Predict the structure.
Amino acid sequence: MSTAIVSSNLGFPRIGENREWKKTLEAFWAGKLEEPAFLKQIEEIRLSNLRLQQEKGIALIPVNDFSFYDHMLDTSTMFGIVPKRFPYEGGVVPLTTYYAMARGSQGATACEMTKWFNTNYHYIVPELNETEPKLTVNKPLEAYREAKQKLGIEGKPVLIGLYTFLKLSKGFKSDKIDELIEVFLPLYTQILTELEQEGVTWVQIDEPILVQSLSKEDLTRIHHIYTALAAAAPKLNIMLQTYFDAVEYYEELVALPVKGIGLDFVHGLVQNLQNIQKIGFPTDKVLGVGLIDGRNIWLEDLQQKLQLLETLAASSVPYERILIQPSSSLLHVPVTTRKESKLEPVLRNALSFAEEKLSEITILTEALNAGKDAIAAELSANQQTIAAISTSAYRNKQQVQQATANISAAPSKRNKSFAERSVLQEQKWQLPFLPTTTIGSFPQTVEVRNARKHWRSGEWSPAQYEAFIQEQIAQWITTQEELGLDVLVHGEFERTDMVEFFGEKLDGFAFTSNGWVQSYGSRCVKPPIIFGDVEFVQPMTVKETEYAQSLTQKPVKGMLTGPITILNWSFVRSDITREQVAYQIALALREEVEALEQAGIEMIQVDEPALREGLPLKKQDWQAYLDWSVLAFRLSTATVQATTQIHTHMCYCEFHDIIDSIRALDADVISIETSRSHGELIHSFEEHTYDQGIGLGVYDIHSPRVPSVNEMVEMIERALQVLEPELFWINPDCGLKTRGKEETIASLRVMVEAAKLFRVRRQLPVS
Ligand code: GLN
Ligand code: ZN
């Protein structure tokens, strides 16, 4: 008789069905909840998440995936890694210190936060300098005990693997990594031996770093770590869990002395499967089959998943040696579709958030244990739902599909070179030396946000709201003229969010009521869903921009969000490639660009702040992504006249490694954030200069501080040493929507003054 096939989960959203977690955290931070009450409420959320997985029938339920803020911060503090600027005297890290590290406190800046691999989740970066790691508390063990005592759950403790933890930490020189491994190994060993003594069966050790490009040295270290850990707790089953892509060095990894290997069969499907088919899978190991997409929100085609399991079985991975699980933690998807009653059934039924994904896992497990017939009803419902959406009109817009099928025939190149265009543009625009401009948005004050609320709730008529927006635009046009800026903007008062605004106006997008996912700490985002063919319906930005232009002789820049940013900040349909969706968005945006031009708006900025963050995890996949991203951008901007000036903006500056693609966008002007790492950027321009219009942010918009003229002058001087002054623009780092009115005006005044100093200097005879 064969043993039963086991279902497993890798992690569950912390935020709760109604974002209770966020609300509880924020109430505690605001001093509205005492610590004991706070801990009690948090415990309830944690237990209810576990209970839900228990009710769904998941056999291996993860514990210790829950967090008070972030799992990397949990790991650091578990090891007593607290930077010296925070109060800490050893032992268990107090909650106040924990939150001070996450959010900053009086006198101590918060720890750095950065993207968790290629997700939109951000973790707190561990700072290892000057710390002496110790095991202050065995968190996985505590979580295991809690689940067992309170709910009778035989949980699967989850922890971040040693190598991933070190690789994501900072505060040490890379040649110290071997020493650090020796520091941490005893701590990990202790965690595991205590789990073993407690009678824990499975532990999940997350090593997503294994899907990134690794060196042979990395591999040797991984081998060393896992040989030591497996030897230290021989009775504990270690599931070495990877996700987000296929593993590098498959052969070496599956030879490690651990009991299980977890692979992503969604985002790393092709390569992981090929490896198994070519190399086989060891007969003494369990394969964690990441079948259900932990990163996207669509119901899976269950037949297809069963076929994949059959393929695996035919390639020496029999059903008795697999776990059926999601491709990654479900942290990256919303909690449940149950509340989405406003969505059309054809779409709503095709969605699967965390709870629904658990059901998919148990259905597949049941299919293997009891035979397909046992789940015949579920399978047929699944087929129908998928057929319904794929045959729906939303996904069958002939025109859109033809246009993207013929994408190579669509214009993607401006009809004149930058050299030719810049001459024509100079004649047309007659801008002064070092023209000044801003990135698009002006302060979204309480007044602006309230106006939008009134309008959305119906309290204000559309006409009332529109009048309000016009008033804001008019005020800021006046302000910009008074300040003496050269290229003006309308201020983006009508937009909440740079993607949502366009999603609401384009066809093919849907918005959930409650589809929140954690972005960092208590902050959650509700990404739009691109579920159908994307189509332009009517102009989206022309009215406000045209109105702004009617109030001034100076040029007003039109302001659009680029195709790649819209793509990367949405949940995207998975029945066609992301590349195809990018082209659909690009063609829709092209219509907007043309509409703006028709309306006399002949400077148009297409923002791409999310271009870089969409880079794949493996370097070898970068170029393909960059190529289609650049093409998408060009498709949306190529058809304008030579005199029309295309701007773009990016909120980062680490692009020395993608500079060729940035150049290939062929924008007439690019503005980029710089002030937080000015030195590095200047340095990278020494190596490869940039020879189209460029504006390096001359002040940091993340702080309310108004910089001095001298600071800005210095920034500009250094930039002009490596960039062509005739092509240089003066602008802030990014949009100003999060800033207050007064500081915004004060900083811009200084900025214009700085530009004027340079203009005067240029007139002076050279001595
Ligand atoms: N135009 C946008 C703004 O000014 C750009 C925002 C961004 O780069 N994230 O707000
Ligand atoms: Zn920006």
Observations:
- The first helix runs from residue 20 to 29.
- Residues 401-407+435-761 form a domain with the TIM Barrel fold (CATH 3.20.20.210).
